[in-house]
Amino acid sequence: MAARRALLSVSDKTGLVDLARGLSEAGVQLISTGGTAKALRDAGLTVMDVSEVTGHPEIMGGRVKTLHPKVHGGILARVNHDGDAADMAANGIEAIDMVVANLYPFEEAAAKPDFTRADVVEEIDIGGPAMVRASAKNHDRVAIVTDPSQYDAVLAEVATGNWVGEDTRRALAAAAFRKTAAYDTAIAAWMAAEGNPDESFPDRFTIGFKKELECSYGENPHQRGAYYRQIGTPQHLLGGVKVLHGKPLSYNNLLDVDAGRGLVAEFDDPAVVIVKHNNPCGVSLGDDLASAYLRAKACDPVSAFGGVYAVNRTVDLALAEHLAEMFVEVLWAPAYDEDALEVLTRKPNVRLLETGERVRPGNPAEPVYRRVMGGMLVQDPDEGHEGRDTMQCVTQREPTDQEWVDLVFAWKVSKHVKSNAIVFAKDGATVGIGAGQMSRVDSVRIATSKAAENGLPIAGSAMASDAFFPFPDAPEMAIAGGATAIAHPGGSMRDEEVIAAVDALGAAMVTTGRRHFRH
Predict the structure, then answer these.
(1) CA-to-CA distance for 465 and 378, rounded, in angstroms?
(2) Could you state, in order of their start, the residue ranges of all structural domains in the chain?
(3) Is 322 considered catalytic here?
(4) What is the pLDDT of residue 200?
(5) Cα–Cα distance, 75 to 95 (Å, whole number)
(6) Is the pLDDT reported for residue 365 higher than 80?
(7) Could you tell me which residues are beta bridge partners of residue 307?
């Protein structure tokens, strides 16, 4: 049998020399291109240039080098196929038994702010994916190696003298097709982001993900779990985040971290958000984080125990000393003072995450995905300006200035509470939250009863509802509990009846014209 031949052409040269040396010691002839060939020669290895195989030099600045029948014929030739063998003999084609290729770093290029569109386009690999796909298609004979993490296992099989086994070739081919699919998805996402936003719901919707973290389990111990980042997005939940201390992050931790991140990003003033089971159980603004924390915790101190905390300022000693008295699952913060870290790290299990920036909003206009059986629902993100100037007073009495401040605050919080959502707020802090109920009246009842249990006065508070009131009962109950101003989207067929009931009780009501359902 003729000597085995391997074609190596990689962008990421991690582990390249060790792999090539192992192949060479096993009697495999090395073929390579450009920078890869230079790296191998610099390591003292003998390499044949692709141009020697094709009889044609690289052209167009390297855009065309492996796109040639002597390369692709050598890869695609089938075992024991008379026609293929005849074509190879007639055209001087020799078989290629292994291809080692990873692709131009397109994602990294697209993320560089100083790269022009032309620069990014040049990082769209053509020859690499073509060789990868050809090799994966012909995995009955060819081993396609696309990641340095595969090198050791491949070398171990080659060293046995039996080449790369059938099961391994099949697994490598599957990984190769995942690689090219993800690569093309990233390119498509980049091009779509530059295109017409009205085309964000194409006939074929393709997204790709890369595993970033293996979770100990999913929502429950009998479920497996992992975290994948979406390919082609500017940032992701854990992108640039440092885990400074604590146990590994769990599946549920990540769900709650994302909920806290999204809510705390709504505020410019110092803010503390406490999340439990994907709902905020306490939110407050303050002159500093310590004062905001005390008021956020007061909203529901029982639920705050074992919660996920998100803040939008550097964690200082004052806040750290308060948190040291609590059981905290995760603390998400832009930074930590040294003395605060010293206090917090005395607790072995608390997970301390440093984001490196004050606010970590989502990616602009990133679609929201929701899995359903055998498919996916896709929608625009629920974002946009939420302020006093977007609301309209519909009652005889206008809200006071303080009521306006609390209405806007409560409305922002309600956007992040599971429907049916009711939020009572006073002086920039939540005093009662009702979440996830089938009846809006029940949400009001839960919010007012929690406030009473925790000794928080609702008198003079503002209440926000994520959707309109179909009947006057919920507003009447809220006002009876002490609310003096109410915000809701409006749009019910009984709006006039609801407004009349609020007017009769002397309260103020504003409509937002926008609903914030969160199922």
Answers:
(1) 25
(2) 5-194, 239-354, 388-511
(3) no
(4) 65
(5) 6
(6) no
(7) 328
pTM: 0.82
Domain 239-354 in CATH 3.40.140.20? yes
Start-to-end CA distance of the chain, whole Å, equals 64
Q: Where are the beta strands (DSSP E) in 321-469?
A: 328-333, 351-354, 368-372, 375-379, 392-393, 422-426, 429-434, 461-465
d(CA 466, CA 515): 6
Least Cα distance to 259 among 409, 360, 335 occurs for 360
Decide if pLDDT at 385 tops 70. Answer: yes
Check if 137 is active-site.
Answer: yes
Beta bridge partners of 229: 210
Cα of 276 vs its chain's centroid, Å = 20
The backbone region for 337, taken as left when phi is positive above 0, alpha when psi lies in -120 to 50, beta otherwise, is: beta
Please identify, in words, the CATH class of the domain defined by 388-511: alpha beta
Catalytic residue among 13, 56, 137, 247: 137
Q: 246 — alpha (psi -120 to 50), left (phi > 0) or beta?
A: left
Please confirm whether the linkage preceding 420 is cis (ω < 30° from 0). yes
> Which member of 13, 56, 210, 277 is catalytic?
277
Domain 5-194 in CATH 3.40.50.1380? yes
What span, in angstroms and rounded, lies between the C-alpha atoms of 238 and 251? 13
| CA distances from residue 37 to 16, 45, 129, 152, 349 in whole angstroms, order as listed | 11, 9, 19, 20, 49
- Residue bearing the bigger pLDDT, 192 or 178: 178
